[in-house]
Amino acid sequence: MTMMGLGVWLGLGLGGLPLLLWLLWWWNELWYVIPLKLKCSGTGTKLPPGNMGLPFLGETLTFLWYFKFLRRPEAFINAKRRKYGDEVGLFKTHLFGTPSIISFLPSANKFVFQSEDDFMLKWPNVELVGNSSLGKIKAYVEIKKATLENIGKLFVSLEPGHLLNDMDELFRGMVNGIRAYPLNVPGTAYRHALQCRKRLEAIFRVELEKKKSRNEVQTIDLMDGLMQIKDEEGNKLSDQEVVDNIVSLVVAGYESTSLASMWAIYYLAKSADVLRKLREENMAISKNNIGDHISSEDVSGLKYTNKVVEETIRMANIAPFVFRQATKEAEYKGYKIPKDWKLLVWIRYLHTNPENFEDPMCFNPDRWNEPAKVGTYQVFGGGSRICAGNMLARIQLALFLHHLSIGYKWELVNPDAEMIYLPHQKPVDGVEAVFSKL
Ligand code: HEM
Question: Fewer CB within a 10 Å sphere, N or C end of the chain?
Fold first, then answer.
């Protein structure tokens, strides 16, 4: 190559590299925002402040940086608040493969939850939707087993055994894929989740066929119920709809209830005073009852226990955010929310924000002597799509606290275990604890 040729290539390289980097940095902005500006349709003309991140990845790496490596999820939103201000309570971003708007203030979240015509529910990967000593256990693992056994029996009359163990693995694979990047290629969490879902469907299909081959109609479990319900015109659900509903209900109820119970064990182990008061209340009620039986009236009378339930769910932040999709262009406080963009209603930020809860990281059931400030407590989402199982979850947790507090004492093996935040917030050791009977 001549000196001149080399010079040309060097010049192109040196000049081209910054241009390439500039293009990479602004690609998403050019790709998504400029066309919207050119169209300039609708009421609001400007998009909320924020950064669209790198091509394809958007801000996913930044999200992982805060959630997975720094393990300070709130810092993700705080960094944005410092940079862009928080007057409007919305940021534009690009997360989980799509351009999105994050809402993180009570007023903005309320706007999203209540504008049901404008924003429909949209999960990112919707295809998935001594003698008495019991020894050392990982609370998370054991609670999950017990919860799945309950669900297996209530939903499909499955008894504990190999099949339920297999299902546990499959559900785990599916849940890991729900918030994963939707890339359907070998080796990704998303692809694995799709495969797990297929196998789960096959298991439920077998149970469905068994039920259909019975001669008489029986209603023993949830699947029977779903097979029999009819709409106003007398139409029943199709087989696929029954299976889809069972899978979604197990996904919605299994991991969430297990995590809430795990957090109760964790926080109570660290709050001797709270556990003492909880035990007193539950011991008093168990003296009046024969055997293990406890009625729903008993549960609603357990005033302190119900505060422990609320405080556990607030601090557990089981759903860090919920998803919507703009069905049409909308406007909020003069800012545009483009049609088809995702909305991430960042509910965990509400529950950990000292503007909403005094000393938010302190486990203090007595804060529930007063209701939370309006719009600041959205653990179950909001609007018409609010968690369908919220009362069931509360009752299950109260029952669990009852039996736990009157029957057992326990100590954490690693009280200072580090937290992880993906796929869910939990101590890294899954709450290892030494249990013994009281
Ligand atoms: C502490 C436990 C639980 C928490 C924190 C929780 C939280 C949530 C959240 C945040 C949503 C999304 C709401 C939205 O998009 O606005 C949701 C939806 C849902 N949850 Fe729960 N959940 C829990 C337990 C349960 C249980 C036990 C069940 C039933 C077995 C259940 C069934 C559902 C269903 C069916 C939906 C979808 C509702 C819809 O789209 O209309 N959840 N849950």
Answer: N
